[in-house]
Design brief:
This protein is mostly beta strands. The chain contains 1 helix and 23 strands.
Amino acid sequence: PKKDCRESQTQEVSFSVVQVIPRSALSYTEGIAFDEEGNLYESTGLIGNSKLMQLIINSNGSSSSQTHLLSSQYYATGITIWKDKIFLLTWKNNIGFVFNKTDFTEIGNFSYIGDGLGLTNDENYIYMSNGSSIITLLNPETFLPLLYINVTSQRTPIDHITELEMINGYIWANSRDTDFIYIICPTTGTVVGVIDLYNIKERFFTGNPSIDILNGIAYNQTSHKIYITGKMWPYLFQISIFKDVSTPSTTPS
């Protein structure tokens, strides 16, 4: 990573909802990610029901066009798209899988120590979270760790980092059991911005007991649009953030 981020006060970043896209409320979402062509993929968790899916978004919402069900002993977590491959983690099994992006054929696997939760990449390196305040920088060919990034805000660790997404050179991250997205400098681990998505839950999900936590961030590099969702959420939300001097900004196109 080459980005130079200095320690500064974390900025609160405002957002607006641009589009609300219906989707299956049965998806226990662990990760969502776009490929370079703008195709959307999702991984869902739970033992015996962990899946990798390709999704189609249209005027009626989103639906699955291709699905791969993992063996029943695995609990799938985060995914990232690397060239023509999909990397997928498992939570407690200490193993990740590599799939052909086109037909979901399993073409490899890799091992790691500790929990596996979130994945993203910057076209040079893979970034992985394990539910702590540490993000691990990995070699995408060997999956060996190269660097450990401590995520902090005002020098205080941000724990329970889960889903990850690289957007305009910054890592966006969910933190388990919170409504926050943290915008993180990949070089220093410094949180430069935070988005509070509580208003989405209050506006769309009040009185819905089946709604689980916020978990899912995807950036479409083709359209420059940002999408977020959560576990058992019946919607995928396209959001736009308001421009700020110390954080990246995207607007709908």
